Amino acid sequence: MKLTFYKFHGAGNDFIMIDNRTGKIVLTTEQVKFLCHRRFGVGADGLIILGKKISEHTDFNMQYYNADGREASLCGNGSRCVVAFAHFLEMIDGQTQFTAFDGIHSAKIIHYQSPTWQISLSMNDLSDMISYSDGLFLDTGSPHFVVFCEDAHLVDVQSKGKELRHDSRFSQGSNIDFCSPYQDGIFVRTYERGVEDETLSCGTGVTATAIAWAKKHHFKNGEYFFKIYTLGGEFMVSFTINEESFYAIKLKGPATFSFKGEIQLL
Asked: Quick count: other Cβ atoms within 10 Å of Cβ 187?
């Protein structure tokens, strides 16, 4: 089978995009794993299938697969990239709603100058978090354990992240975020499950970090904005706190088109 694909990245977190509105494309776990392989395939942190809408209130459906070939939970950068992809395909204008792993999300294109879109993505409300002596565990569409450091630049993310990712406290495993104060915001590095490596950025991870930061530092009721720095680029996370619950959570950041190609699948 000859497969047409598109490559996008969100601040260095890269994805293979497949237009499957016809519903005719069916990929096996091994095929997804092959496509994401950086030496034998196209190479990516994950693969996203844009499918036809499954709700009358949405424009399309998104399925996300990690580089290990398995279908995964919500991907924040991938969600913004699939919105850029839908705009690239002329399916949507400036705003959209779509279905993902954890339900319906809305998104808005703030700015577009080829090849990059600036996109604001609405995330689900959150109230449940578990505090540990070494960090905070929460779910922003994907599970994250946020570790507070003096300087995240100096952390051995590969070894420490791999160790914590399989910690017995996290029954389904967890992504691991290491964060520290930086300039006028927070610097974050993320070890992603499924990729089993550090990625240049993680959308659900920077969102989790901003919320965990507010929780750790006992922020009061109100609206807050965080500038988040990663190895791949910058983000803005905003939310409203009301009685220790987090509402109106938005993740803003870039989504960039890299190239279009074709590949032969066995």
From this structure: 19
* The pLDDT value given to residue 244: 87
Q: Which residue among the candidates 36, 75, 81, 179 is catalytic per the annotation?
A: 75
Chunk the chain into consecutive blocks of 10 residues (it has 266) and report each block's average pLDDT, rounded to whole numbers: 96 98 96 97 98 94 96 95 98 97 95 97 95 96 97 97 94 95 97 96 98 96 98 98 95 98 93
Are 233 and 259 members of one domain? no
Active site residue 36: no
Q: What is the count of structural domains for the chain?
A: 2
Q: Is 202 a catalytic residue?
A: yes
What's the Cα-to-Cα distance from 216 to each of 18, 105, 129, 223, 225, rounded to whole Å?
Answer: 40, 27, 11, 16, 16
**Are 171 and 228 found together in one domain?**
yes
> Which range marks the domain in which residue 84 is found?
2-122+255-264
Residue position matching structure tokens 């915001």: 185
- Of the residues 36, 81, 179, 202, which is catalytic? 202
